[in-house]
Amino acid sequence: MAKKSKRVLSVLLTLVMILGLLPTSVFAYEQDQVVSNGQEVTEADGRVVHSKIINQTGENKFEITLTVKTKEEIQEQAVSQDAAVVLVLDVSNSMDDEVKGSQKITQAKAAAKDFVDSFVKDAGEGSRMVSIVEFGANAKTVSDWTEANGNAGAVKDSIDEVEIKFDYTVRCNKNYFHRHGRDWYRGAHDMTVKDDGGTNIEGGLRLANNLLKSSAVADIENTYVVLLTDGVPTYHVSDGDETSSTTFMAGTYGGGDEAYHEDYHDIYCTEQMWHHVQHGDNIPKQIKDQGAKLYTVAYDMTGSKNGNVNNTSAKTWLTNFSTQMIAADEDIFAGLGQVAEIITNQAKAWILKDPMGEFIDFDETTPGVRVGTTEELEGSDAVLQYNKDTKTLTWDLKSDAVNREKKGDYWVYTFTYAITLDTANKDFDENKEGGYPTNGTTTLTYMLSDENGVLQPDLKTTKLVVPVVEGEVPEYEYHVEYYLQGEAEKGDHKNYELEDSSTPVKAKLHSTQTIFVDGQIPENIKNKYNNEFYHCAGADPASVTITNDPAKNVIKVYYDHDTVDVTVNHFYKTITIFENGTSNEDTVDYDGPHTKTYEDCNVGEEFTAEKMEYLDGEKFTFEEKKSDSLTIDELGYTNDSIDLYYVRTVDQRNKANILERYVLVDKTWELNEQGKYELVSTPSDPYEVYDSKDDPNANWREFDPYTAEVNKPDVIAKGYKFDHAEATNGIVGDSQAKTMLAKGDNTLTLYYEKDALDTPDPATVTICHFYTMDRTYIENGEVKHEQYTEEENTNAAVTVTEGIYVGESFTAGAEFLKTEYKGFHFTPDASNDYTLEKLSSDPAENVINIYYTYKGSATPDETTITVIHEYYDATKVYNEETDEIEIDYEPNDELTEKISYPNAAHPPYNVLYVGQKFEAPLNPVDGYKFNEAKSDERVVNALAATNDPITLRYYETDPDEGRDEASIEVRHTYKTNWTVANPSGLGTTVRPDTDALRVERDPDLDNYSGHQGDPFTPTLNPTYDGKDYKLTSDNAGEVKLTAQGPNGTIELVYERSDSDLTSATYTVTHHYNLRTMSVVNGTAQWSDWQEVGTSDNFTINGGQQLPKELYVGNTFTVDKAETFAYDLNGDGVAENLTFTMGGNPGLTVKVDSETGHLDIYYYYSDELPQAPVRVRHEYTEHKFLYSPSGVEIEDTNVTYNPSSSNWIITWHYVGETVQVDPLPLDYTYSGTSNGTLNADGKVEITVASGNNDVILSYSKDTDRRDSASVTVTHIYKTRDYDGSTTEVSRNSYTISYFAGMPFTVSYNTMGGIYPKSGISVTASGEYTETVMQDAVTLSNVVSGDGNSITITYIRDVDTRQTTKVQVTYNYYARDTYTDDDTMSDADYIAQEGMKPEYTVVEILDSKSQGVWVGHEYTAADKPEYTVGEGDEAVTLTYGFVNSTPEGRKIDSLEAMEAGSTAVPEKNQIVVNYLRKYSTDPGTVTYTVVHEYYSSGRFMGSTQSTETGKPGSTVSADDIGKITSFEGRNYSYLSADPETMVLAADGENVMTLRYTRSSGGGGGSTDPDPDPDPDPDPGTEIEEPDVPTTDLPDEPTGEPTEPVEEPTEIEEPEVPMAEAPETGDSNFAYLHLLSLASALGLVALFISDKRSKKHRDEA
């Protein structure tokens, strides 16, 4: 049971731990666009683990985390582009032996050449330096450093110079007896050395070490030494020999055919011998210390050939000091090839190539990544590079020391970059099945070491599992804009006015949106502006392809004005005025009409005709009243006409002259006989104003009226005012200065008067009053005496100024007397002088003094009074019933005294009067005190003739004592009251203290002992605890001890004040705003409000100043300041204006902070003055009697005013325009006294500040004549556009009339439907047409019914029925690169789903455009379309494809359906255009290299040049594999890269590698000569053990044990723990929970182990 419980607990703890280990990113952004995540893949027995995990961070935003884990320390493999290698070749005698039928030295040199080829291959721009060293018994540099990249032939030539038993001349500087080889020498000498074929490995390595120190390779980090040998060392460099040479190293014989200690001592030696020194700085170590890698190749060292060195086999010895030893055995090609492969592949190893997938954008701001084009990245050694041309991220892990960390056995490399799914790409398919991979084939190349740590040459490639995402095409707003023609020319759409826009609607990017519904513009759009007299003229464009710029996603609909034609008829009349003053004005006819037609005028708009005042060179005057209004306020849909009339006058009257002059009349003041001033008038000589004789332009005629302007500024400026005018021929009517000119000379004189300039100086008279008084009287009981002489009453003084002047006399009349003074009546003195004979200019001399005297009453009667003084002795007793101390009093007769007043011995009264106030004097005695309460009233307010006596009583002050003893105690209480701000006003208030401190004082000080009934006053103590208090209780006064013994306790309360105040400041700004009234277009209007000033001065609470002591918490009310001085008239003088406060600014302020402010706004309206307009109507009747010939023989005028006494009064602002409607009744309006008659038939005046009287006059004629009748016929016809006429209607009627009179018939144009220009007349007799009066007159009506007038009206009509035509221009674009060129243009645009790139819709509905029912119509050819505006405008040219109907022509236009505004289907034309373009990017070449390897040895290559399109992807899977090379069959292995995006510039190379087994033992370390070139990335690839023993000469066949296929372990699709935090990181508790769970599991494990141990022991 316990075991089961432990298991359950273990499971629970494990689950908790897993939950805690979940990365917080699982709580991040919703992964709704991730279709599939990457997964972790393990390879090579767990030595390489890789994954690509995606995390969605936002809409279309992701982070890709690349993780590679390996147990290899790959930074030791890091190499740069440049490299240098020293080939150290063995040319000992044994290299002359044959292996596999060929001399070993020959094979070695051939293999060395192959090595050079492999070494420079893929070097690019990198340096490849090679040096060749050969060693036998000696060592020699065959070639110093040579650049092999681009010059491999020179290096190969040097290899050809390598030979066995080489010769070399050298200078030996030894000065002692020594040996070279087997020969001995004495001293220095030159010698030609012939190598004897020994094996001096030390010499070769020393030369290599020295060459590595050369400046030629000092800047190259990647250096190598490759030592090829086939035997053990038998020669060495002696200790005293030269060891710094880079050209030659002499050898010393050692063991001969076997290795002696000296031969390997400086290379690698571990022997323990006496006096032996183990070298820590041996030659291989020095090479490695320079940073170089030392590779050794053991050639043909198998079996017995693997000699013994340092007590071990030669191969083991080589392995001990080498970076890596390659056992080439008999295949030197494989051996050196493997070294070359290791060297070259290290630069390619641990490279992760991550191409971006389709529609995936790499975040080029990713930190640590070098971003550039192929050209820009050339030569860059950045660890992370992103190639914008190939869209590939390259990560060199072996050079990355930043993005790695050690976790257990693994080095973990992690890098995260951001990507964006480009759903805005026009080719993006949001419905693509399976979504879009984030990347192309992501590959990781790597090299591994075997179990002995030996780096294997194989460059392995694996693929990472790529995540897949999906997305939605974004939506962007588009809208429709509606443009009205406005002031633009028709069709000039760029200048149409934007009137409205639709609410934006979202649509998919790249989708095409249109306003069409079933091929038509919808009715609601067509008719949108019908009410504003516009019609739809089409759309351009009518459809739009949605872009990511909403400002460009606009459909534009255009509307043209509805139009109508307007005809203006001009009529001209010449009037002649004859010599006698008569004229032919009423009989002469108008010439006309002269017609002008204005076409296509906008319906609904105002139309104004142009006046034509010249005819045949003569100037005419426009007759505004007779003409139609020049302006039609709003044109309708019917053709309007305007008749305009002009007149000129030819005058034949006699000439007249006029002299206008004026006389100035001055007025002066003069004294008359009465001594008063009066005005006297004095006229001046006449001043000439105008003399027509001096006016060359004058043309005055007899009977002309002449009116003088009375308001002459120069005269008025002198102070004169117009008075009257006089004329030779008299003044006409009631006018001020109008005369009718007579033949010859005429004079008009105007008289002006000016008030007297010498007005007498005004005088001032002062009238003063003086009073005399002497009387005695009683007032309020007091005796008083009043006396004054000539006392002036200044309040009664009178100043007279009106109507009196200096020099005149003045008499003060009775009205100036002031007899009442101080309540008494005074009498003026008889001696007063009331007249000033001549007033002075000095007011002090113009004074009249009037004197008054009071005649008063007698002195009052005298009287007496007696005062009695009584004294009482006192005895003190206590009354227990009343609880009072009482005094018993007894009278003391000896002291009592009576005194009568007045009494000289008892002042102060020497005399007393009746009515006088009396106060009895006291008579005090020592020991006695006056008792007012028990005495009579001392004061008599008014003494009478006889008075009652007054008794005053006095009582003893020190009574005897006889009461019981009594006591009382005192207690003190202290309170502190805080002074706080008054919350309901200003100042402060006190907050009482509710916590009182009661203190009992010292009993000796606060206790009192006395007698019953004694008064007691406690002793105050207002200081406590160092603070001063103030007594506030009312019990500190005297108290009475009413009881025997103790009488209780008195509690005295003291209080003190403290402050809890915060000072505050408060400001107020009064803002004064003004608006003015002005007359605009005849109507008084207000201007906008404008602030004209501010004031920071303010008062509160009804005029108080804000106190300096203001506290937070106070409340006050800000006074309104509605008076403000402002220069309203702009004359520099400010006047006080009363403004009105606006709104409710909150004048009551509650101070709530240390500073406060209030803004108050006031408003003043400067209103214009108003004036009355009085209107009256006057009517005049004229009675006529005519002869049969129509001559007037009787004229009777009767004028009456039916409302003359009833003025109609209305008030208006001065300057406003007021219109008065005439009231003609049965009269005819004839004129007005004020104002003018406007076009609406109303009298219009401008209101003045003075007289605004308007008298409208009317008249009518009555006559008595013989009866007759006239038949009138009106015939109405229409004339069509082709000239044909049709009678529409006729109207005949007969009118009773009078014979001998002309008869006039008014035209009836049917409300203006028929123009005046189309009227013709026939009549029974002579007639005249008075077009100006809109009538025709039969000159003389005869008796009977034979009179007739026939009027024919003709109006032009257009019977053509309007209709509409819609022309749709579709502009298509065709990419000749991507489309099927075998398809015709017509078939291309007819494909399903094919949409034009632009569409323009035109709706035509004007006859001027050739559009009417039944008419043939051909649409315009418009092969061009302009995109953009202004400087960005581009015009595209298209070719015509086809149209419906053909030829863009409709034979006969159809009418629209009744009630419909839709364009009939037959009236629709669709014209299709197409432009062709090509997106062909051109071609680019790329090279495919096929490389062939046999057991790792490079055998050669071929290459081919292919072509493709820039930006296209080439995959190795798509390239044909060439598996045969030089007669041998190979197996395809891998490609580098697997895929590549062709760059327009730069190098495009893909290398395909093939492999085969050589079939021999060789030195190959790879038992699988043909590995799977593309292992399943989800399967671990087992690395075979590299054999450390000799391989057999022939392959032994298949392995005896089958290789177990590893099982793929599926990883859950969750983000890796190393993924960056993108969500809420507050999950530390999960990790703590995980840690606790892990500890629990450990505890369970220990417990279980202990239990197991106990079980085992049991």
Describe this structure in words.
- The chain has 1658 residues and is mainly β.
- Helix content is 9%, strand content 43%.
- It has 14 helices and 118 strands.
- Strands 33, 34, 35, 36, 37, 38, 103, 104, 108 and 110 form a ten-stranded mixed beta sheet that branches. Strands 16-9-8-5-14-18-21 form a seven-stranded mixed beta sheet, with helices on both faces.
- Helix 1 (2-21) runs antiparallel to helix 14 and helix 2 runs antiparallel to helix 3 (152-160).
- The two termini are 20 Å apart.
- Residues 23-27, 1559-1629 and 1651-1658 have low confidence and may be disordered.
Rough shape?
flat
Low-confidence stretches: 23-27, 1559-1629, 1651-1658
Strand content: 35-45%
Structural class by sheet pairing and helices: mainly beta
Share of helical residues: under 10%
Tell me the number of strands: 118
Mean pLDDT rating? 83
